[in-house]
Design brief:
It is a multi-pass membrane protein. By secondary structure, the chain is mainly α. The chain has ten helices and no strands. The relative contact order is 0.14.
């Protein structure tokens, strides 16, 4: 293990030789799932989900690093891409819940007002995104002090992401409980349509993706908190098991439980419109119970 003149441990880009086979496998997996998500977006015109598609790409630099472990730009770009994909997924999940609540005419059952829900969580996501991007950018300078500073900023970004995502999961769960207890007219109609997916199918996808992203975020936070010489960051297998594989399963889950199964068509577009209240519609009034 390398040490500096002060007796501390030097910052090392990789404490192993990045696996070429593993990198290629995940390149193929992410290319295939990303291409299918793009197809789903285009076919269903669910353009709001493009940001999720943008998150599905990350491991080409790991393949390049196999034969060039000392290349700082390759390390920095690869690190930034891997860090930034989950925040893109998270932003899509936030927007999907907001649209689903509007689609079900269930704004009254949301813990956070729908007009603020997406804005609040996406703002937190953007802050986490920028902090992680800044941390990765600072690390690209190549000096030990900059890399340590970059790591600290990245840890902060991961912490912000973890806090907002945890609150989001709680808010989603409360909304789900409330609408099950006090179904709106639209949610009741959805449940009666046995020939198609229901709103709970979309919620299932959001839960699965959220839990996977949450586990991944906890892992990355612990990994960076251990430092550059920590056990987790020194063993590549952890990166693939608790990051790459979890994010791949996130893409698969959101493909199976794709929001467009419910959030598509003119009705959804009308309800999601900021001027929806001006359009002729019959609203079902429900008694709201709180948890």
């Amino acid at each position: 293990m390398a040490t500096n003149q002060e007796g501390g441990v030097d910052f090392v880009l990789y404490r192993y030789t990045p696996s070429l086979v593993a990198a290629i496998i995940f390149i193929v997996l992410f290319v295939l799932t990303t291409a299918f998500h793009l197809y789903q977006v285009i076919r269903t015109r669910s353009w709001y989900f493009l940001i999720f598609v943008a998150g599905g790409a990350c491991y080409i630099c790991r393949a390049l690093a196999h034969n060039d472990k000392q290349n700082i730009p390759i390390y920095s770009v690869g690190t930034i891409m891997i860090l930034l994909a989950p925040p893109l997924y998270a932003a899509s999940i936030y927007m999907t819940l907001g649209r689903l609540i509007m689609h079900l005419d269930a704004e009254r059952l949301s813990v956070v007002p729908v007009k603020w829900l997406t804005a609040i969580f996406v703002t937190g996501d953007v802050i986490a995104f920028l902090m992680q991007a800044a941390g990765g950018g600072i690390m690209s300078s190549g000096t030990i002090s900059a890399m340590n500073t970059g790591e600290s900023i990245t840890i902060g970004g991961l912490a912000v992401q973890l806090v907002f995502f945890s609150i989001f999961i709680i808010a989603s769960t409360i909304f789900h409980y409330r609408i099950r207890q006090n179904p709106t007219e639209e949610s009741s109609k959805e449940q009666s349509r046995s020939s198609r997916a229901t709103w709970e199918v979309v919620m299932s996808g959001l839960y699965i993706a959220s839990i996977l992203i949450l586990i991944r975020s906890i892992f990355r936070l612990i990994e960076y908190a251990q430092g550059n010489d920590g056990y987790l960051i020194s063993h590549e297998a952890f990166l693939y098991v608790f990051d790459s594989m979890l994010m791949f399963f996130t893409m698969v889950a959101m493909s199976i439980f794709h929001p467009s199964k419910v959030l598509s068509g003119p009705a959804t577009a009308r309800r999601a419109s900021p001027n929806a209240e001006l359009l002729p519609t019959t609203r079902h009034k429900t008694h709201i119970s709180t948890v």
